[in-house]
Amino acid sequence: LLHNYIAKHKGEMAVHDRDNYERRLRDYKSEIRQTRFLRDKEELTDRMLLTSIIHTWKEIKILREQQKYTNTPVKLQIRKQTTNKSEELEGWNFEIEEEIREEQERYEEEFMRKETVYKDQMEKYEKQTQAKEEARKRIAERNKQRKGSLSSKNSKVSKKSQETVKSKSAKEDEDESIEEENAMDQEIIDEEPMLKPDPPEPFDERALREQVMTKAKTQKRQPGEPKLFPEMSNTATVTPYSQCSRREQQRQDDVTKCKIYVKILFNGKEVSRTGPRPLLQDFSVSFGQIYNLKIVEWPESIKYEVYETTGFGSGRRLA
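^ CC2D2A N-terminal C2 domain-containing protein, sequence as received from the core. Prediction below:
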């Protein structure tokens, strides 16, 4: 809408207003591109995470089948939601065309900027090339004239011409002047040559379309593909202790012997700690305690340290 408004009322706007609208339009486009980028990135992250969750759950199911017992009630179910392929395909194509259009507009703006830089660099390159060529011609012309002058002078002297011969000092001044001019032109020739700039590449809609399509196929859910929602619950049946293998029984016994307690540190000093509580078979601990702490000043730090103990002693710090 803002783009259409600017195009419609461009002739009626003051330069300041037009620049302000165009700046706002550029900002809006930049925000839209950034939002789309973050959305696509987040969608890709979600798909990768879901794939990883499903893969891990399959490994857990295989392990449960192999060991023939289940020691945790965790259960993962994947709920599928069917989608309308024709509707999603329409929205899919619309988003692709919108992204292509925006990328084309951005490319055209960048192309104009690069073309301006290219013309400026090309002009400097051509000027330098022409200056070097003209300097070479001037040096060649001076050398040719000097050789011709010497040849003519020698001819006249040998024939004992009546014409006046230039004095030695005048000849030296002329040679010195020629050498100075040649040296100045040689400096132009010896200047570091500029690289011939390459013109900006024209817009390739086909390549851009392939790029956008490839990104959409790898990062987004395809039209008609069902939506997957993982749902975790604690409804799996845990195998009774007596039906587990001897090794699993020993592991559960070791877990039962393990106890957890927590230290509360205020500004790096221990002010309280919980009593040891047994670690349950689902690796959770229930303390069920409330601790009151009177604070006089705003603390620099409050930390909790988790310890594990299997008997007497201070225990081993876990976190």
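DSSP finds six helices and seven strands in the chain.
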